[in-house]
């Protein structure tokens, strides 16, 4: 049985992971490195399905394992993702969205979650030879959480940890040194089209600006497309053009702050950088506004009042 059929364009990673299971040489820590949306999380799921099913004799048992892994309810699997805090309660991004919370800061993997990993690994695996912990967006760990995880990586016991991150620079060197690195690459246009068609998003292929931003990442393309659908069309049309005067800059800043939460505003910066850069290359803008937008990103990440950030940024671009 090929457990990696749904993972397209990552042949080298599949080969390394498959050989590790076949030779029973599972590392205590893995670091899946590569751009967002190119299949790292899917690869982790496929790897775990293969690992947990390796010695099972019956097809029905394998199907049961696959189903529980995909639903994240296998007793020997702990899947950790960044969370928001709301009134002392941790919420996943999906829970925060369902609750209609206005998110003021990006989610992160917290020290309490790292402690829960330690508790999870303190007991022996129930059904498999080793437990597995997956950390999505491992780069969101603060220093305290990362140091706590380091202790677990030093003595994982009968377990394997899979850290998923965009770059090695996003993590502490001490964590990197204790993991086997698996590199994932961006997809070529043919593989990109295949993935988007299989996922039911073939319409994205007719939108070059989305494909341009995604740069070979089908997951990013889908995320960009969905994010675009969530922004009112009139606001989207306004922000794609530089404000013509200070008054229009202030009005646009007010509308952005009123309409979008901080996370959506951070995404909007990426979108505007792409749109404005294309206009700059075509000669429609005399001076690149990329640097002011990058400064705006840093201000938002440092919790500066969003409306003030956009007012200063758009006024500066208007005057450039």
Automatic annotation (TrEMBL):
<dbReference type="InterPro" id="IPR027417">
    <property type="entry name" value="P-loop_NTPase"/>
</dbReference>
<keyword id="KW-0548">Nucleotidyltransferase</keyword>
<protein>
    <submittedName>
        <fullName>DNA polymerase III subunit gamma/tau</fullName>
        <ecNumber>2.7.7.7</ecNumber>
    </submittedName>
</protein>
<dbReference type="InterPro" id="IPR050238">
    <property type="entry name" value="DNA_Rep/Repair_Clamp_Loader"/>
</dbReference>
<dbReference type="Pfam" id="PF13177">
    <property type="entry name" value="DNA_pol3_delta2"/>
</dbReference>
<keyword id="KW-0808">Transferase</keyword>
<dbReference type="GO" id="GO:0003887">
    <property type="term" value="F:DNA-directed DNA polymerase activity"/>
</dbReference>
């Amino acid at each position: 049985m090929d457990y990696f059929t749904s993972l397209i364009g990552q042949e080298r990673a599949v080969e390394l992971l498959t050989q590790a299971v076949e030779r029973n040489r599972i590392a205590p820590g893995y670091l899946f490195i590569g751009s967002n949306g190119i299949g790292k999380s899917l690869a982790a799921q496929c790897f775990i399905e293969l690992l947990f099913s390796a010695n099972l004799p019956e097809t029905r048992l394998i199907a049961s394992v696959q189903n529980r892994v995909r639903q994240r309810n296998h007793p020997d699997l702990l899947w950790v993702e960044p969370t928001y805090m709301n009134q002392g309660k941790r919420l996943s991004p999906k829970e925060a969205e369902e609750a209609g919370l206005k998110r003021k800061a990006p989610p992160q993997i917290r020290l309490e979650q790292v402690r829960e990993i330690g508790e999870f690994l303190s007991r022996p695996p129930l059904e498999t030879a080793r437990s597995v912990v997956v950390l999505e967006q491992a780069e969101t760990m603060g220093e305290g959480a990362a140091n706590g995880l380091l202790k677990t990586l030093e003595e994982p016991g009968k377990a394997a940890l899979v850290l998923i991150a965009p770059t090695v620079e996003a993590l502490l060197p001490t964590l990197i040194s204790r993991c086997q690195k698996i590199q994932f690459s961006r997809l070529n246009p043919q593989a990109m089209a295949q993935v988007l068609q299989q996922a039911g998003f073939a319409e994205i292929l007719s939108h070059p600006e989305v494909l341009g931003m995604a740069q070979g990442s089908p997951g990013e393309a889908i995320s960009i497309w969905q994010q675009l659908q969530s922004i009112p069309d009139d606001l989207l049309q306004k922000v794609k053009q530089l404000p013509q005067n200070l008054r229009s800059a202030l009005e646009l800043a007010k509308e952005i702050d009123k309409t979008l939460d901080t996370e959506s505003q951070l995404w909007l910066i990426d979108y505007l950088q792409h749109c404005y850069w294309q206009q700059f290359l075509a000669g429609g803008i005399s001076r690149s506004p990329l640097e002011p937008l990058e400064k705006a990103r840093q201000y938002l990440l440092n919790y500066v009042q969003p409306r003030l950030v956009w007012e200063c940024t758009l006024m500066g671009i208007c005057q450039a």
